[in-house]
Automatic annotation (TrEMBL):
Transmembrane segments: none
A Pfam family hit: MPAB_Lcp_cat
Name of the protein this chain belongs to: ER-bound oxygenase mpaB/mpaB'/Rubber oxygenase catalytic domain-containing protein
Organism: Lunasporangiospora selenospora
Entries under InterPro entries matching the protein: Lcp-like (IPR037473), MPAB/Lcp_cat_dom (IPR018713)
Amino acid sequence: MSRVISSTGYAIGPKILDRLVETNQFLFDISYAPENLIPGKGVGWKAILHVRRLHSQVRTRLHRLGKAHPKYYDIEKLGVAINQEDMLMTLVSLSSLIWDIMERRLGVTMSTQEKEGYLHLWRYTGYLMGASEETLALMATTQKADATLESLKMHLVHHNTTTGKSTATMVRNLAAKPIISRPIETIGGILDPFTSHMALIECVTTRE
């Protein structure tokens, strides 16, 4: 996965802040309210399909470049870019890993119902992104999602020069740079989506 990310050049240079802000906005769009996922008009639904289109473009680009220049992206060694396993890793990282970190690092324990609901959100997101039924079956329950995450850690997570470079670049470009340049207003304790979005835009534009 790190090779795919580095090949796009979007997460290893000065644009890393833009990438993180866009990811934050994506998470906000799909999880803020149920109506955001209404097919055809929900902002979250549209955001998911937009990401699916971007994934398709990256996959096609790297496939063509890999055929012409194997040293740039070795398809035989690395496999199809953004494949089912890559998507599964992303889905369980944004579900199982989240509640694991909340419990171990923050002392916040989600109820079984909350975990199941949050996992359902990511299964639906995966479905819209093109994850197969076989892939989604590996996160059918919270227990399966936890087990799948541990299995994928063993298979996909390992240190190499690419991940080291990406991490170093991220730290260097984000050092002493707040993600939000001003406080975000809330409505009844919930983030106001318009104010949040404008604050994020302001943050990005002031970096340019």
